[in-house]
Specification:
seven-stranded mixed beta sheet; about 35% helix; Aminopeptidase; alpha+beta; 14 strands; 2 domains; about 290 residues
Length: about 290
C-alpha cells in the first residue's frame, strides 16, 4: 500500500509507516508532530488523513469540528493550496524550512502567515539537561540531589517485559490527575513502542515503578523528542530526576532534546522556561485572505 494521490486521502496506518517515516525523518526542523509515531498515536484525536501531490505530503486533520491541513515537507502547488482552503479553515504547523524559502510567494497568493507560539516546540541542548551546569541550573541540581538522597532508585531501558509496570505508573498518574489528558495516546504508545520505533526508560524507587518516559529521534538523529513522560508526584523531584537521567542516557549523536509545546498553558510554559531552552522549533499558521 502507498500514499494515494491528492485529492484522495486515506487514514494513517502501519501499512504506510515506511513511506511516511522515509519522508518525515530527514526534515531538518525537528517538529515533534512530524513523525509516523506521533501522527499515528493522535490519529483518532485529530482524525488525520493523508495524501500525496507530487512530492508534497498533505495531512488533513480536524479538531473540535474545525478542519486544518499540514504540509510537513514542502509547499503544495498554488492550485492545490486554493482547493485545500475551500474545505479547511487554516494551514497548521508550517515549519521554518517550509516557510522561509516560500514566504514571499505565499503572500502573493493571499495567504496570511502568523506565529503559532502556543505550539512552538521547546529545544534544549542535550548536554545542558544531562549535566545541569552553572548557576542557571542550581535549583534543578538541588532538586535532583535531594531526590537522590531521599530514594533508592534504578533506571532500566523500557522493554516489553517491563510494560506492565509502566502501565501501573500510567494508571496511577491518571488517577492522581483526575483527568485523562493524553492517557489514551500514552497507553497505546506503550503497547506499540517497538513497532513504532520509539525508545524509553522506566524508573524505580525502592524497587517500585515510579516513572517512565518515551520518545524518538528526529531530524536524522540530531534531535530526540520526548513524547510522553509520566511519574508519580508523591516522589518529590521525580520529573527532574527523569529529565536529567534520560538526557544522559541518550547517544552523543543527539545534540538537542525537543520537549514539545506548552499549548498556551501558563504553568507548563513557566516550567519549560525554567530549563532555559536553547531555542524553539517555530511553527506558523496560514489563513487564506484572497
Amino acid at each position: 500500500m502507498s500514499i494515494p494521490c491528492y485529492p484522495e486521502f486515506v487514514p494513517i496506518s502501519f501499512a504506510l509507516q515506511a513511506e511516511l517515516q522515509g519522508r518525515l525523518f530527514p526534515i531538518p526542523d525537528g517538529v515533534s508532530e512530524y513523525t509516523f509515531a506521533n501522527l499515528y498515536l493522535f490519529r483518532k484525536r485529530y482524525k488525520y488523513r493523508i495524501a500525496l501531490h507530487e512530492n508534497s505530503l498533505i495531512i488533513s486533520g480536524e479538531r473540535e469540528g474545525t478542519r486544518f491541513f499540514m504540509s510537513p515537507c514542502e509547499v503544495p502547488e498554488h492550485a492545490v493550496i486554493l482547493e485545500l482552503f475551500k474545505t479547511h479553515k487554516y494551514w497548521k504547523g508550517i515549519s521554518e524550512s517550509v516557510l522561509i524559502p516560500n514566504q514571499e510567494r505565499l503572500l502573493q497568493w493571499g495567504i496570511e502567515i502568523a506565529e503559532d507560539r502556543d505550539n512552538f516546540d521547546y529545544l534544549y541542548r542535550r548536554t545542558d539537561l544531562a549535566q545541569l551546569p552553572g548557576k542557571k541550573y542550581h535549583k534543578k541540581r538541588n532538586l535532583v540531589n535531594a531526590f537522590l538522597g531521599a530514594y533508592r532508585h534504578e533506571e532500566w531501558p523500557l522493554t516489553a517485559e517491563l510494560l506492565p509496570q509502566a502501565m501501573m505508573v500510567l494508571e496511577r498518574w491518571r488517577q492522581d490527575k483526575g483527568e485523562d489528558g493524553d492517557y489514551y495516546a500514552a497507553r497505546e504508545a506503550l503497547e506499540l513502542f517497538t513497532p513504532l520505533g520509539m525508545q524509553g526508560s522506566i524508573y524505580y524507587i525502592n524497587g517500585t515503578p515510579a516513572g517512565w518516559c518515551l520518545g524518538e529521534a528526529l531530524a536524522t538523529g540530531r534531535i530526540f523528542a520526548i513524547h510522553f513522560e509520566k511519574g508519580i508526584d508523591a516522589y518529590k523531584g521525580i520529573y527532574q530526576f527523569m529529565n536529567q537521567t534520560f538526557a544522559a542516557s541518550l547517544s552523543e549523536e543527539c545534540t538537542y532534546i525537543n520537549r514539545e509545546q506548552d499549548l498556551g498553558d501558563t504553568g507548563l510554559r513557566q516550567a519549560k522556561m525554567t530549563y532555559r531552552p536553547w531555542g524553539f522549533v517555530r511553527k506558523y499558521t496560514g489563513h487564506y485572505k484572497g
